[in-house]
Specification:
The complex is a heterodimer of chains A (327) and B (323). With 327 residues, chain A is mostly helical. Chain A has 15 helices and 2 strands. In chain A, helix 12 crosses helix 13. Chain B has a single domain, classed as 3-Layer(aba) Sandwich (Rossmann fold), CATH 3.40.50.300. Classes of the chains: A mainly alpha (327), B alpha/beta (323). At the A-B interface, helix 8, helix 9, helix 10 and helix 11 of A face helix 3 and helix 4 of B.
Chain lengths: 327, 323
Amino acid sequence: MDIMTIISNAAGELIAPTTAAYVLAAIGLNIHFGMTGLMNMGQAGFMLLGAYGFAVTQSMGCNLFASVCAALALAVIYALLLGIPTLKLGPDYLAMVTLAAAEIIRIIGRSTAMTNLTGGSAGISPQDFTEKFEALSPLPDGSTTFLLWTYSNNIANSWWLRIVAWILVAIAAFLCWRWFHSPWGRVLKGIREDENAIRSLGKPVTKYKMESLILGGLFGALAGIIFVLPRSVQPDSLGRTVTFYVWTILLLGGAATILGPVLGSCVLWVLLTFVKEVMRNTVPETLITSNQIEALGWVIVGVALMCLVIFRPQGLLGDRKELAFHA
Amino acid sequence: MPDTTNISQPGVPFHDLAKWATKAPEGETLISTAYGDKVTEDLKFVENKPGVHKPDPILIADNVTRRFGGMTAVDVDHFEIERHGITALIGPNGAGKTTFFNLMTGFDTPNTGTWQFDGKDMAHVQPEKVARMGMVRTFQLTKVMSRLTVLDNMLLGAPVQPGEGMFRALFPGMWKRQEKENVEKAEALLERFLLIKKKDDYAGALSGGQRKLLEMARALMSDPQLVMLDEPMAGVNPALKQSLLDHIMALREEGTTVLFVEHDINMVRHIADWVTVMAEGKIVAEGQPKSVMSDPAVIDAYLGAHANIDLGDDSVLEDLKEA
């Protein structure tokens, strides 16, 4: 195996739609955690709901815009349901509730009771919900090679999806930048630091937290759509682990930074693919089987992340000074 | 919305006075004392007894009780705060002063009781609404937003900002101008509280005393009608204390009513128009500073017999032993 394949596979992750989906999810989580201090341990729940909202309405024949709206509306309702009972309580309660609620959505999604809608544990296959999205593409049919990468123009894991996904990321990052540097963002950061102080200054804290939960959830739902477009909707592929990947990405890139989620996601997935590809090509099959390489890749990334947390706890882009104060 | 018709007729918002020196030149008074004189005049005829009625109360509390299990932390029959006055709330530790603050500002819910602020019923009103109605408080354990700059902390104190809406936040054109005004106001206040050099530092980098100052300055961003300061002088050095006293008196002259909890008796004596003493949740004495502080009940419960004597002075201790 030549080194070019390893590099092009690893670099492929740089622009992969899944990477973009994780960026979007991490941007949502950044609004929750980085800005407002909400411990959302169920970002995958928002993603899965978004994916279902999109795919189910698509398979029923709705148009693309209506489907995206349905996905976003589901995220809003979900955020309200989670937020109303828990936002008045401490942060740990929100963590518990979001973690549990994401699992509830996944388990309902894969239950046999809803098979005609969600497809049970087999999920919804791509031909049921990706056609309209692919038909929207202005690109000609066929495939294109650009630099190292060759992908189909419109079908499945395509250039079209990449373009849409990264444009969404760019818009989301821009909006986030605007929000971060606005009085609204300042109130959220104030809530992160001390809720009661903000209350004593006359700001309705619960309303702001709710806005934050909804907004972050909307980005989560969008991420879910992008996540399922190159594959199929499978409840188990958007489980707890996804939530923790999103957290890893956010902390890796640096919470409360604009480009942290982008950098975090790119670094994590490129690094992971690179490590796995190198092992596949250098370590003989008799020593470590390919199944083990899959797991070992995560182990190595995990160790790297631990080092990062110890030696650069603010993340790649974070401000070390901010960590000095834990009031 | 605070009713602006009956407050601060001098018409100069507080922050515009920020250019004042923090210390008066020798032999001159720093500020006009119009409100101070009026309050003194009004309170002269008020009887010195707990729960007395006052000529022009801004806050009236009735029958407020708060119990924690079997312990009654606050049990106030009747209490009034004179408008434009500086009222001190003193009392031994555990007397219920801070709990009373929490109740009045909505941070805690009483078991019984009603109270009106400026004629509006305030029982069961949420803390953020209390603040927006013009009653702003500070905390005994200072609350600053550590990972925000000092200036951002101040800006959070500004009320009614269009940029604090989620959608309007995206269009800086809609809030840039107001933001600029707020920054000017904040900087003027910071200058007055000697924090202007720190404005771009994280608030977490401030010392305890500086945080007290920041918290007080932040509370003033909204030009409140009534500020409730919980131990504003704790941890502030003597020189700064003097200028803080001036600030508090300046507040009164703009029409802001001040209620504060404090253990520094000299400060209480120096600036308070009225002193209320709490012990075991009840108001045990009320009156002009001089008469209250010579009340034997207050001396027994709170001040102690040697309140005016510097116990660090060895010669005084010798005298005491002999006596």
